[in-house]
Amino acid sequence: MYTAKITVTLRPAILDVQGKAVEHALHSLGYGGVEHVRMGKFITLQIATDDQKEAKRISDEACAKLLSNPIIEDFSVALERIG
Amino acid sequence: MKFGIVQFPGSNCDHDALWALQHNLGQEAEFLWHKGSDLKNADVIVLPGGFSYGDYLRTGAIARFSPIMKEVVRFANAGGPVIGICNGFQILCESGLLPGVLMRNTSLRFVCKYVHLKVENADTMFSGSCLPGQVIEIPIAHGDGNFVCDGAVLKELQDSNRIVFRYCDAEGNATEEANPNGSMMNIAGIVNKRGNVFGMMPHPERACDRQLMGRSDGALIFRSIVEHASVLGV
């Protein structure tokens, strides 16, 4: 069994309006040095296989098909064996 | 002609579309359940507005995998007319039937109001009853209507005249102030290359009944589809 920890982020060229709003809020809290706030998604899922390659294939495919939109988002997957 | 209106869990403009098509346009219309795989011989498919699957993950991202969407994609690829309104537009983009994606409004606000739209292309089956350059008034109601695509796609949309409606002011100028959501080039509605799949963020079904709503510019869109079909003898 593997746990996949998936991070989905907006591509650098895409304007992140939520990140901007959070950045402004941080500035008004006094954190003037905070810059480039970007919002993303963190998804975990468990995959019933003992084969790391298979776990990678499944999580990559899930990201490409459903969990991210390749037009605006990138994803990264970190796998962890859990017994 | 017969319209099939798909109902996803979270669709909330399905009944408005049914009312507009049956009572205001005098057409046959029927609901199609998202779990079904039967388009019930509909001549046109309507993907209505709403919040399918609670907008979880991304707007339209889960609805595109509903069983009925397989049939809708097959229908569209065979040339069948498909119109996606608001959430329906988002679903069409997620399913790849239309390019681009609808992102969060740049204001971060849900915007619900009448907007002016300029008819950029009156030569499609979804806008043929409009005059070229005409300014029409149709309401929007969305939090994610900010159309985004890459530069090459945007150029292709422009060059092939596939931008059907743009947000504009009352005089027809597509200004930044008239853009309610930050959409590239004030895009409000686009059509696919073949011309049979159309998506728009504004809600024409909410502006068909002059008695109820005071305006009826939305009927132009549905009338365009009906008239196009009658020319073809459907």
Write a structural description:
By secondary structure, chain A is α+β, with helices and mostly antiparallel strands. Chain A has one domain (2-81): Phosphoribosylformylglycinamidine synthase subunit PurS (Mth169, Chain: A). Chain A contains two helices and three strands; from the N terminus they run βαβαβ. In chain A, strands 2-1-3 form a three-stranded antiparallel sheet, covered by helices on one side. Chain A is elongated and about 50 Å long. Chain B has helices at 14-24, 67-77, 87-94, 151-159, 210-213, 219-232; strands at residues 2-7, 28-33, 44-47, 82-85, 101-103, 111-119, 135-142, 146-148, 163-168, 187-191, 197-200. In chain B, 24% of the residues lie in helices and 25% in strands. Chain B has six helices and eleven strands. In chain B, strands 2-1-3-4-11-10-9-6-7 form a nine-stranded mixed sheet, sandwiched between helices. In chain B, strands 5-8 form a two-stranded antiparallel ribbon. Chain B is α/β, with parallel strands linked by helices.
Number of domains of chain B: 1
Overall shape of chain B: it is: globular
Kindly report the greatest chain-chain contact and the residue count on each side: A-B, 10 and 17 residues
Written as H for each helix and E for each strand, in order along the chain, the element string of chain B is EHEEHEHEEEEHEEEHH
CATH C-level category of chain B: Alpha Beta
Q: What is the 3D form of chain A?
A: elongated
Computed Rg of chain A: 16 Å
Q: Which strands sit side by side, in order, in the main sheet of chain A?
A: 2-1-3
Number of domains of chain A: 1
Mean pLDDT of chain A: 96
Report the C-alpha radius of gyration of chain B, rounded. 16 Å
The CATH topology of chain B is what?
A: Rossmann fold
DSSP strand content of chain B: 15-25%
